[in-house]
Structure formats: structure tokens, C-alpha cells
Amino acid sequence: GQQVMQIPQYQHVQEGEDFTTYCNSSTTLSNIQWYKQRPGGHPVFLIQLVKSGEVKKQKRLTFQFGEAKKNSSLHITATQTTDVGTYFCAGHRTGNQFYFGTGTSLTVIP
Amino acid sequence: KAGVTQTPRYLIKTRGQQVTLSCSPISGHRSVSWYQQTPGQGLQFLFEYFSETQRNKGNFPGRFSGRQFSNSRSEMNVSTLELGDSALYLCASSSRLAGGQRDEQFFGPGTRLTVL
Prior knowledge:
Chain A is 0% helix and 55% strand. With 110 residues, chain A is mostly beta strands. Chain B has no helices and 11 strands.
């Protein structure tokens, strides 16, 4: 069956350092979404990528979708304490459900 | 617009009992998905309903079932509870776009189920 793997599982960074999480699918995806879940909260949508090779930016966050539409990454520049949380990717193939990655838990040390 | 609501927020049950969780999607959303979240397994897809029909189903035993009503509200039921069913159960509503593309999912706050 389809799997979406996400690495790393945990990441501790000093405030101001960069952070990247990677998502890999065993099959080609129609689109991929990214979510952030704060401790004690629920996942909140960040962005959706649809096109092969697509790059989108939201302030300090940069999202990429691989050329083969099987991998994606989220990069945060100059992390802040407000970036703390778990970041999930969710891959989707047309007609199927979303497959969530296992998530990357980000800790930012002030 | 009001967000996705889930009731109850917390539930404590004992093994063997059954439980029903409720989810009210954002007004106008006809797609409701259910997920089980546990620390070790992340977000596991349970099922998705669209216009009262189950469209997709995850790899869970038949003890887990759901339904959707004509007003798009959804319920999920777990029968014969086991200790391993303790988890946060999240529902998410979304719109379905043309061409099979999917819109963002809006998650509810979840129901925290503890099985003793």
C-alpha cells in the first residue's frame, strides 16, 4: 500500500537556525499538503502543492514538491519559538484518501 | 464561519464498551474524514464520507464504523473497545474540487478517548 515517510522524527534547533523536514512517498502523488500541529492542538493547514517541481514560500517557510511528485520538503529559515510544533505532510492520489507522514516534531531552544 | 466541532471532547470508557463520536463540519463542506492519532503511529486514516457515502476506508478492523447524515454531520462508532483504542480522534472537513483535486482539510479539536 501507499506509504508516506517523513524525516527526521525529531529536531531540536537553536533559535535563529534553519530547519528542514522531508517527506517521501512510495507512489506518485496528485498533490501534497503540509500541516502544523502545536502541542495540545489540532493540525492546521499550511499549504498545498500540486505541480511537479513547484516551490511556494510563506514568509520564512519554503515548500517544495519534487519533479517526480514523490517527495516534498518544508524549510524554515531563522526559526523562532513560535515555530514549535509538529509538521506533517499529507500526500494524496486522486480518488484516494490523504496519507499522512509520521510528522517531524520541532523544538526551538531560545 | 464556525469551525469543525467535535463532541464529546473527552471520554473515558472501559474495555468491551462501545462509543460514538460526533463531528459537525464547516457549513458547506460535504467531505468528512476521520483520523486516529497516537504518539507512536501519528495520524492514521479511518474513513472518509462524502454526501452520505463512504468514499475511502483505512486499514482498521470492522469494530470501527461511521456514517454521515444528510446535513453532512458525521459519527464514528467503535464497538468492543480495546486498550489500544485509546487515542485522539480527529475529524476533518473539506471541499472536493474539480478534477479530483482536494482542498485543505479543516480539523476539529478532537475527542480524547481513554480506554481503561
